[in-house]
Design goal:
about 240 residues; mainly beta; six-stranded mixed sheet; three-stranded antiparallel sheet; globular
Amino acid sequence: MKVNTAILCTAALPSALSHTIFVQLNNNAVGYAIRDPSYDGPITDVTSDYIACNGGSNPTTPSSDIITVAAGSTADLTWRHTLTSDATDVIDSSHKGPVIAYMKKVTDAVTDTGVGDGWFKIAEDTFTPSDSTWGTDRLIAAGGVQTVTIPKCIAPGQYLLRGEVIALHGASTEGGAQFYMECGQVTVTAAAGATVKSPSTVSLPGAYSATDPGILIDIYYPAVTNYTAPGPNVFTC
């Protein structure tokens, strides 16, 4: 029997404002070294410059701070529904989708807009067929903490660290996927003995198309059995 996805989506409407923001990096203060918006709304146009580091209808607040992280170490990106929410209010559970992270080497992490080439993917948590769970389910279970590994082989210097959640509950129509992203500002120190490698990079906007199968997808019917996140493969050393 075919499931009426319109009914399912309508049932989710009361929680439609349960969006999310990447609010903390490595347990520093909210907004420290992150360009956080005051509003938690999504970007839905993948061709917009705002797909890089947010903005536009979600004006972001600049930060003059930069956090130092070591290549090969882990970084914790904390997500919350709003800037003042706690670990019990991360994103509504109806907002299913992947949780992703990118980096971009820049000359100045404070002033670089993030728009354009240079981005490489360092992590993605997508869909687990065995129990039909999504990256967002695991993000909620972790109290909103997305832990990623800074690649050991990347060159030292300043980077943008972009956390991203893609909510697919409305993605059965073009433009229905919701993208939540913010950019943290980091200085990466070299890992001892590591051979530096240069990752292949993509442009934001440019890496995503509105019709990519990981963006234009009905997650209700037929049941999802596999899923490929949009964008490049995860860079490995």
